[in-house]
Design a protein that fits this description.
Elements (H helix, E strand, L loop, with lengths): L1 H88 L7 H46 L7 E6 L2 E7 H4 L9 H15 L6 E6 L14 H18 L8 E7 L10 H7 L1 E6 L3 H9 L3
Parallel strand pairs: 3-4
Antiparallel strand pairs: 1-2, 2-5, 3-5
Helix pairs in contact: 1-2, 2-4, 2-7
Length: about 290
């Protein structure tokens, strides 16, 4: 009887101890989940800010190009009017002082507008040339990698570096492979030589729902974790300034190809480094022409 009581006591203590441990693990997982939710909200806010910045930069560039076109039309109109005026003056033996002054001011106005257009166009061309030089440096640093794995391009003044996820990560994982670290190191070497450059790392997935275990819920979580894994490597292993980086997850909603085919899915699973245009530097280029 005594042995039986001892056995029951030990069993009761085991149940109580197991219950306490389970509650403690559950509480720890809840805290960890809340921390990840807070991190995701912050990253989403950073993404929204970077997206707004890129849209504003594109809008200003389009506005400048529209201004150039408008000024070119004005110059053409003024030149036509002055040509007609000069032809009319050929038939006159004398013009008044006020007429001569008016013609002189008109010609000076044309010259000033033409000079402004030339300066503006020169600044845009120089900015584009700097971007192209950056692209060439990146391609030279990366070497002869397959274009399907790494693609570098310029679109509307923005430099994009697309790296396929088959190079960076294993399927469903956000742990960076050794081969990926080698490529990121080459990219980091070029970016580190441009300390004023700011960029955003975007994670992208295909439309296959995420079925992994753990704290990741869906493709949103997976794309964010992949982006943060890349910026963490660029900061900790290659010394890039974290103030110049942002991490964002795009999930499956910015595809570059049709998800209906395996090739399309493969193209959509990518990590994109977006080098953000610096319009303040562009306007400095313009100011030097004044």
């Amino acid at each position: 009887m005594r042995n039986r009581n001892i056995y029951l006591a030990i069993l009761a203590l085991g149940i109580v101890f197991s219950s306490c441990v389970s509650k403690k693990l559950l509480k720890n997982e809840q805290i960890r989940y809340e921390q990840l939710q807070t991190q995701q909200l912050k990253l989403q806010d950073d993404l929204n800010k970077c997206t707004d910045l890129t849209a504003e930069n594109n809008r200003k560039r389009a506005q400048l190009e529209s201004e150039i076109e408008s000024l070119n039309k004005q110059i053409g109109f003024l030149k036509d009017n002055n040509n007609q005026a000069l032809k009319q003056l050929e038939n006159l033996s004398v013009i008044s002082g006020s007429q001569a002054e008016s013609i002189k001011k008109s010609l000076e106005n044309i010259g000033a507008k033409d000079a402004y257009i030339q300066n503006l166009q020169s600044a845009i061309n120089k900015k584009d040339s700097l971007n192209m030089a950056l692209v060439m440096n990146l391609k030279g640093a990366i070497g002869n990698l397959d274009d399907k794995d790494v693609n570098i391009k310029v679109d509307k003044g923005v430099v994009y570096i697309d790296i396929s996820d088959k190079m960076l990560f294993k399927s469903g994982s956000y742990d960076i492979t050794d081969r990926a670290k080698e490529v990121l190191g080459k990219v980091a070497l070029v970016l580190k030589n441009q300390p004023d450059i700011e960029f955003m790392v975007e994670g992208h997935t295909d439309n296959v729902p995420y079925k992994g275990n753990g704290v990741l819920l869906d493709n949103w979580d997976l794309s964010v974790k992949r982006a943060t894994s890349v910026v963490r490597v660029l900061q900790s292993q290659y010394g890039l300034n974290p103030a110049n980086m942002a991490a964002a997850g795009r999930s499956e909603f910015k595809p570059v190809s049709d998800n209906a085919t395996p090739e399309g899915k493969s193209a959509n699973r990518r990590t994109r480094i977006v080098i953000l245009p610096q319009l303040d530097q562009f306007f400095k280029l313009l100011e030097t022409k004044k």
